[in-house]
């Protein structure tokens, strides 16, 4: 078997075209959505991801607001920029690029954000709303994974899903989305303390690998025909990317998201979707395009 590719790049391009129409409709009503980013430090990966977010904004007509701080910035320096974007009317939504440098209290920074401007869906109020089944911006990578599966016709309803990794951008929140009535999956969250991880993976219809551990998921871990999403990214000394999924998994899986070109572009597309939805909500209608 050779897996069908879950093409995130092409899917994200289609989503961006749909969003561009909605942004036009907002602008026709005098509403200009604007995405802010706060980048602290000089991590090459983070710089690339933030640059990509602003390229996407230009493509769909969203204004860009960029704030950069050195890796030596203090907690107070970062919080001052958060307060500034909370108050800036041109910034209709924003993100704090993660991870923040060691020593910074990430939770305190996230909690200081205005939840109405939280374009990542990572503010505790918005995560709480998700738990309570209330309307909230959805975390971008989990939402991107679901959209990627849906648009490729992979059955989620009733599926057994194994997630590897308990980070805040993916592992912690994806179960909240996948177990909603609209998705109806059964989710097992595996992590470094999980015994028999191979057995959990082998049983799954869908595997989401988000551990940041190169080639952790190997062909013998995957049920033939399963869908495998490669989310983790590790970079070697030369900056070359390795995903969490071994390339030979393509011989066993029914669907496989490439890395790069899979979940990453979908994460960015869902960020834009959150910005557009927030602007539409603020304009007094759920969808104007
Ligand atoms: N505030 C946030 N921080 C982080 C998030 C997040 O959702 N919000 N997720 C990740 C990084 N991330 C988004 O910020 C992200 C990762 C990957 C990509 C992407 O498009 N990757 C490309 C490859 C790019 C390259 O060459 O390196 C791909 O997969 O094709 C975009 C965004 C952690 N931080």
TrEMBL record:
GO cellular component: cytosol
Cited Gene3D superfamilies: Leucine Dehydrogenase, chain A, domain 1 (3.40.50.10860), NAD(P)-binding Rossmann-like Domain (3.40.50.720)
CDD domains membership: NAD_bind_m-THF_DH_Cyclohyd
EC id: 1.5.1.5, 3.5.4.9
Record-annotated Tetrahydrofolate dehydrogenase/cyclohydrolase NAD(P)-binding domain positions: 139-282
Keywords: Amino-acid biosynthesis, Histidine biosynthesis, Hydrolase, Methionine biosynthesis, Multifunctional enzyme, NADP, One-carbon metabolism, Oxidoreductase, Purine biosynthesis
Catalytic activity: (6R)-5,10-methenyltetrahydrofolate + H2O = (6R)-10-formyltetrahydrofolate + H(+); (6R)-5,10-methylene-5,6,7,8-tetrahydrofolate + NADP(+) = (6R)-5,10-methenyltetrahydrofolate + NADPH
Pfam families found in the cross-reference section: THF_DHG_CYH, THF_DHG_CYH_C
Keyword flag Transcription regulation: no
Residues that bind NADP(+): 165-167, 233
InterPro entries: Aminoacid_DH-like_N_sf, NAD(P)-bd_dom_sf, THF_DH/CycHdrlase, THF_DH/CycHdrlase_cat_dom, THF_DH/CycHdrlase_NAD-bd_dom
Keyword Amino-acid biosynthesis among UniProt keywords: yes
Pathway, per record: One-carbon metabolism; tetrahydrofolate interconversion
Function: Catalyzes the oxidation of 5,10-methylenetetrahydrofolate to 5,10-methenyltetrahydrofolate and then the hydrolysis of 5,10-methenyltetrahydrofolate to 10-formyltetrahydrofolate.
Similarity comment: family membership: Belongs to the tetrahydrofolate dehydrogenase/cyclohydrolase family.
Protein name: Bifunctional protein FolD
